[in-house]
Amino acid sequence: MLEPFKDFEVDEFHDGDDTPMAYSRRPKRALLNRLAPSSLTARIALINILGLVVLAAGILYFNQFRQGLINARVQSLMVQGQIIAAAIAGSATADTSSIVINPDSLDAPSDGGGNADQSSLDFPINPETAGPVLKRLLANTTIRAQIVDPGGNMLVDSSFLYGGNDIVQSSLGSQNAARENLFTSTINRILDWFFTTDYPKHVEYGLDSNSDMPEVKAALNGASVSVVRQNDNREIIVLVSVPVQRFRAVLGALVLSTQGGEIDGVLRAERRIVLLTFGFAALVSLLLSALLAATIAAPIRKLSAAAERVRRGVNKRVEIPDFTTRSDEIGQLSGSIRDMTEALYKRIEAIEAFAADVSHELKNPLTSLRSAVETLDFVKTNDQRKRLIEIVVDDVKRMDRLITDISDASRLDAELARNEIRPVDLSKLLGSIVTLSNETAKAGEAEILLVVQPVTEKNKAATKYSVLGNDSRLGQVFRNLIDNARSFTAPQTKVHVRVRRLGDDVEIRVEDHGPGIGAENLERVFERFYTDRPVQHFGRNSGLGLAISRQVVEAHKGTIHAENRLGKAPAGEAEKPVLGARFVVRIPALAEGWTPETHA
Fold it and tell me: Which of 133, 242, 261, 457 could bridge to 174 as Cys pair (CB 3.0-4.6 Å)?
């Protein structure tokens, strides 16, 4: 089943009582067209801004700044952790007087150096001495240090350091939380959500049972490790765990960690720079878009407004804005619209002139016809009545010829535009026309002679006399010219039709032996309805033949003109006698090697 309205949206219109009255069909708009702004200026700005958005998002999302920052912080903490662990192992362990030596261990096998294995010696970390060491080493830093003994118990936490005889708690929360206002906090939350991480959540150490934490377990086993986690505020925390060793005996684990928000603050500052750069670039892009739109959209709006005025301005001539001084597409568009409008006005003027000429030409036979009919009731003799009837018949025939030629002339442009053009050999076409004219000639009419310039050895191309055009309309041109020449040529004389190649054109000359054409009328003979014939031939021609011939020739990009054939001046006289008239037609010849593909 056919669906004629499949690709259209139907708009329903109602009258006052909500009764559907009419439906209109309009093409569906694509989704992209529906979402796009209707203004060209807005579209230019949107496209430029979208490009910057994609660039900024790519820089923020795909950059490696965060990972590089984390790696640098890990290396820094690892070095500090090893230094602090060595300091604690050397100065914060139990006194030598409190060392407990197991006699059985002295009987243990010695190593290659003959010494007993000292890893079994127990040097526990003293929290009272480890605290001041951490306080001195972590002064003026934001690093948090925690020491866990081999049993998983928390020995020292730098968040709770001794100050005199009291325990002083230092706040190590997010360093950015206090400085953020509502707007900044909202923006940061959006950016954090957009650039979210998949780091595991950090769990605070307890007073005991900390040996289950992966980094603590690894340090108690003698390995130095680093982990990255995030706190409840989704802020990155870097932890480094190193063993506290003395004589290869692991006395505990030292865990150093950054504050929540330390790395995030640097990342946000970096993102802020990118966003500020994006904002500045967007502002410049909007200004450039406005400038570009002023050079594109504004001229197009002026041309569109002028075209609308042309559509509505029936009684006045509208001037199209001239941007032809520009060397871009806008200048070309302006020139094309100006040329099109000028051609439109010329066509309107031609139609008006044609209508006026048709009206004038039709009034003449109608006036004569009405006069004859009105006089018919008053005639008294049969001869007078017969003469009036002959006038009526002649006027009717004249009107018939006028209407036929007018109809032919009015549809000429449309027919030339519709019909497909193809190669036409003018020598063969003229041969057929001349043969037919001679065979259908009436007794005493002039004979038509065709003279074709012979093909020379220099030019044997098959397309020598071929042109690109409409054979039926070209045949009409040459029939008009031949009939016109024959009508002015005295009986028992000849009309010559000469064909030759003249450069890149094919030239056809039609020559008669008539009275010639007055110098002042050489151009007027191509005007519509103009005739210059003897009285006995009045009314037998519409005066459109030569006008139609010029229209057809010019549609084929050719030219046609009239001139007089002149003879030799008699002795003692300067003026040359007129031997007859000559009509010259020149049409561009078909290029050698032409094919429909090359023409397309």
Answer: 261
Helix axes 262-312 and 329-376, enclosed angle (nearest 10): 20
Token duo for residue 71: 């790696």
Count other Cβ atoms within 10 Å, centred on residue 392.
18
**In the chain, what is the greatest distance between 2 CA atoms, to the nearest angstrom?**
174
Cα distances (angstroms) measured from residue 584 to each of 150, 166, 429, 552: 119, 124, 17, 14
Query: Looking up tokens 């790519």, which residue turns up?
Result: 58
What are 351's two structure tokens?
A: 């139609």
Burial of 263 (0-12, 13-18, 19+ CB in 10 A): buried
What tokens does 43 get?
A: 């579209």
3-state SS, one letter per residue, for 147-215: EECCCCCEEEECCEEEECCEEEECCCCCCCCCCCCHHHHHHHHHHHHHCCCCCCECCCCCCCCHHHCHH
In tens, the pLDDT along 547-562 reads: 888 888 888 889 999 9
Beta bridge partners of residue 498, listed in sequence order: 451, 509
Q: Which residue has the higher pLDDT, 11 or 65?
A: 65
Local structure of 144: helix, strand or coil: strand
Q: Is 300 a residue whose pLDDT tops 70? A: yes
Q: What is the radius of gyration, based on Cα positions, of the chain?
A: 53
217 burial level (CB within 10 Å; 0-12, 13-18, 19+): middle
pLDDT at position 498 over 60: yes
Nearest to residue 201, comparing CAs of 232, 168, 172?
232
- Beta strand 236-246 with 225-230 is antiparallel
Contacts of 145 (CB under 8 A, 6+ apart): 84, 134, 138, 156, 157, 158, 254, 255, 256
Dist CA 530 CA 543 (whole Å): 5
Q: What is the pTM of this model?
A: 0.47
